[in-house]
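Note to self: keep these together.
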Amino acid sequence: MEKRLNSKFISREGNQCQERAYSDALVSNYYRKFLITAFIFIIIRLIVYLLTDNVEGDASVRIYETLKWMDSPHFITSGVWLPMNYYLSALFLWIFNDALSATRILSFISALLTLLFYCEVVKSYFGEKTAIISGIILAFFLTHIVYSVLGLAASPFLLFVFAAFYLLKKFLDSKNNDWKLLLLAMIVFIIAEMIRIEAWLLIPLFTLFIFLNGLKKEAFCFFCISSVFPVCWLIGCYISTGDFLPLASRNINPENLQNFPMVQKIFIYPYILIKFITPLILLFCFIGLVRNFIEKDKYEFGLCFLVQFFFLITITVIGTNAFPKPRYALLSSLFLIPYFSDGFSIVVDKIKSRRIVII
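Structure:
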């Protein structure tokens, strides 16, 4: 009897060891693939970095404005551009003391860290395979390559959005929902809010994701704390300029693009997606997106994509002096890309099933 019990215990231990070894092998295999993806990612951007400069309209102006701010540092409570990009640029200008390279280094480092957090959050929602495929697409994504080496807000903004998303997902998946993770996610997300206004659109969505996990108090807390900066910024702008959002007043103009027909205005950003993501990849992305919405599965990225993308179309239809640019669609694109893997699998399965029927 004792021998049987011992043999059962030993076999159970052996199975557990095998399962651990298998899971460890899978983890190490994933990170091996991630390191290869990261290496390709870095090499491509390093080559582009060495072959280009920072002579771009907005980039040059932002460097000039940051240098002016550094002459008399103060808390920025209003203005056309949000404050965090000034602070981050000033930090790197102070460290490297080189106006031509400092902000480009900021964008380069932000891009690399974005890859890490992006792949991690995609892995948590879609799985390891999709995370690696999404990372590879991002590595070769032309628009992201360009703004990884320019001293603009796009690259740091993406970093803080996906870092916040990753921390929020970690909080939702953690045992007993660790409040420290939620607090950290809110801090990182507020930094994203202080870089670009598109982050403000994610406040209700991230709140919804928390609420749907049955965490009503936490959702309310996230919404209230995340809304502090947008409210304070709007009030600060109104007090100093008499306008709640000077950026909108300066940029949005019904007379702009007045010679464009409505249909053309509506399709400017869809055209940008088709051009820079490429038609075939975009097709697979939309197939995967539609399937996941139908099945009510992995909808979080899809909701974020739709809200961001329809916002871009709306401000284009209204009319904006800041003519539509590929960088404005970067966040939308990154929310859409993970659906490529599902879409591709659906198409391949359909082709295989048809072949079997024919045979």
